[in-house]
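To: structure subgroup
Subject: Chain for Friday's discussion

All,

I'm putting the inputs and outputs inline so they're searchable in the archive.
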Amino acid sequence: MRLNRTALVAGTLLAGTLLAACGDDDDTATDTGNGAAEEPAEESAEPAAVTIERSRFEPDELTVTVGTEVTWENLDAFAHTVTSDEESSLAFDSGEMAEGDTFSQAFDEAGTYEYFCEIHPTMKSTVVVE
């Protein structure tokens, strides 16, 4: 019986994929050989998003981990800003954001960061960084 070259290559690739899937690359602690467990490296924070729609920040309060970059997107047909509260330990201001504009801010220290829209001061929200 003669093997088809394509079938042989496909079988070899499949076997390699299955072997690779069995490797030890999970996020659990591993034994270092001296009886101590080595914890996996902490991964970088995932980006987070806030939408501005119907003159509201959604979500109203966002909780993220240290190092997270938050991106706001204005979905309203009129301008808004994302401006830190005057008493905030982190000053940020998007400037006027037209419909479809985005603004990003990294949060590298734990804390509670209140912000608002300068154009519509009743629009307020909070980023909590843990």
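Points worth raising on Friday:
Residues 1-32, 36-44 have pLDDT under 50 and may be disordered.
Residues 5-21 form the longest helix (17 residues).

D.
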